[in-house]
């Protein structure tokens, strides 16, 4: 029998992480069409409303129901605006480990939402689901994403050489694929202790985590 995550939502002081809904499709299509998303991820380009609807209403729910992971739409608590996406995948139910990806919409960057949403998912994964390891993989030149990994307490474990295909703008305005290394980061339950201490000491997400692009 395949293990699956529950169908849940996670709340923080500023965010609600929940399943995608049909109303999210236009904002999702716009978010995933951003140049930085195109450059550092493998999403289709151009990313159309058809892609967005298929991801939000078919592929994302199937990740959970088929035991492959879980996808959260990240929304602002006050405005309900879509500001990002967090995806747990590459699950190993025997070793209780998972990989996490995250995207923040261009209209929501600089607010610390990447760190806040990833930490919320990590807390839930470790405390409620009893997982023991969370892994992040960041392209070698994506320094902004690496800052997120560092700020949430991840430990750098090494480099997968020539392991990722990124995209770069060409002189004529198009895109070309380039190979790059991947930096491997890990987060364990005990690694969150220092983050909790920082929060208890009065630091906040918005002030501490403002550099994600």
From TrEMBL:
| Residue ranges of domain N-acetyltransferase in the record | 15-172
Highest taxon, organism lineage: Bacteria
Q: What InterPro entries would the database entry show?
A: Acyl_CoA_acyltransferase, GNAT_dom, Ribosomal_N-acetyltransferase
PANTHER family attached to this UniProt entry:
ACETYLTRANSFERASE (PTHR43441:SF10), RIBOSOMAL-PROTEIN-SERINE ACETYLTRANSFERASE (PTHR43441)
Query: Per its record, how is this protein called by name?
Result: GNAT family N-acetyltransferase
Please give the organism.
Streptomyces stramineus
């Amino acid at each position: 029998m395949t293990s699956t995550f529950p169908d849940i939502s996670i709340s923080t002081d500023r965010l609600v992480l929940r399943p995608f809904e049909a109303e999210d499709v236009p904002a999702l299509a716009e978010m995933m069409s951003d140049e930085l998303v195109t450059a550092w991820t493998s999403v289709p380009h151009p990313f159309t409303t058809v892609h967005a609807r298929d991801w939000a209403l078919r592929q994302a729910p199937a990740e959970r129901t088929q035991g492959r992971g879980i996808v959260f739409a990240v929304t602002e608590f006050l405005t309900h605006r879509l500001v990002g996406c967090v995806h747990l995948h590459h699950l190993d139910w025997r070793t209780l480990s998972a990989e996490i990806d995250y995207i923040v919409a261009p209209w929501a960057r600089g607010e610390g939402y990447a760190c806040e949403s990833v930490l919320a998912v990590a807390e839930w994964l470790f405390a409620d689901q009893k997982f023991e390891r969370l892994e992040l993989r960041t392209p070698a030149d994506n320094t902004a994403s690496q800052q997120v990994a560092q700020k949430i307490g991840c430990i750098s474990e090494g480099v997968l050489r020539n392991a990722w295909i990124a995209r770069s703008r060409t002189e004529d305005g198009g895109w070309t694929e380039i190979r790059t290394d991947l930096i491997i980061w890990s987060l364990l339950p005990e690694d969150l202790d220092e983050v909790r201490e920082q929060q208890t000491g009065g630091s906040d997400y918005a002030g501490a985590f403002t550099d994600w692009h």
